[in-house]
Predict the structure.
Amino acid sequence: MTAPPKKLIIAIDGPVGSGKSTLARRVAEMLGYVYVDTGAMYRALALKAVRQKIAPDAADALVTLAHDTRIDLRAEEGGQRVFLDGEDVTMEIRTPEVSQAASKIAVNPGVRQVLVAEQRRAGQQGGVVMEGRDIGSVVFPDAGLKIFLTASPEVRAERRWREHEQKGDAIDLKTTLEEIRERDRRDLERTTSPLVRARDAVVVDSTAMEPEEAARLVVMLANGNATASKAT
Ligand code: DC
């Protein structure tokens, strides 16, 4: 009897709007893995900081806040739901205000330390698709498969803008592109865990790719890697 393939940790990193969430969710579904959206954790903490009027540069207060906060990601019918200290904040963490706040608090090394420890706990058993900015480089440098997903800034801005439009947020395409460029800059230039492509990551450019195509490609790579690691 052949043993079932090994359950991998699949790390998907990339800039805002590259399609990470759609890809990670779909790959998890196809492989029967757990999906973990680490950006949602930074967003949930940022929402709490905004509510408590803690400034994004109040470094120590933010680290204390991170220690005192419970963030749960639960897979439910219709998608993942995000709970902040038991309260469902799935919708609230997706506003432009929280996006900006999350990218500002994510530069804080102490905050990252707390959230990275949570992420390692969530993924250590394998059978997980985890998406973020530093999953393949910092959280799980030994992940069985690392994907670096990219797309042009214009295409990423358009995707984000459509999402906002569907929700009824009043924001125009030009402003969305400016915000994306600003967040890219912050994600790329921060000293602690900047967005980098791990050297052993497979680069997937989703500019002209359908989400389903990208998902099939990643599943194919995952099946190949799971077989290879079982044989060694
Ligand atoms: O993926 P997202 O846009 O939901 O992430 C929100 C912010 O959190 C984003 O500006 C970058 C930050 N982030 C991070 O620094 N590290 C991660 N692993 C995930 C997100």
In short: The pocket of 2'-deoxycytidine-5'-monophosphate is lined by residues 16, 38-39, 42-43, 102-103, 106, 132-134, 183, 187 (CB under 6 Å).
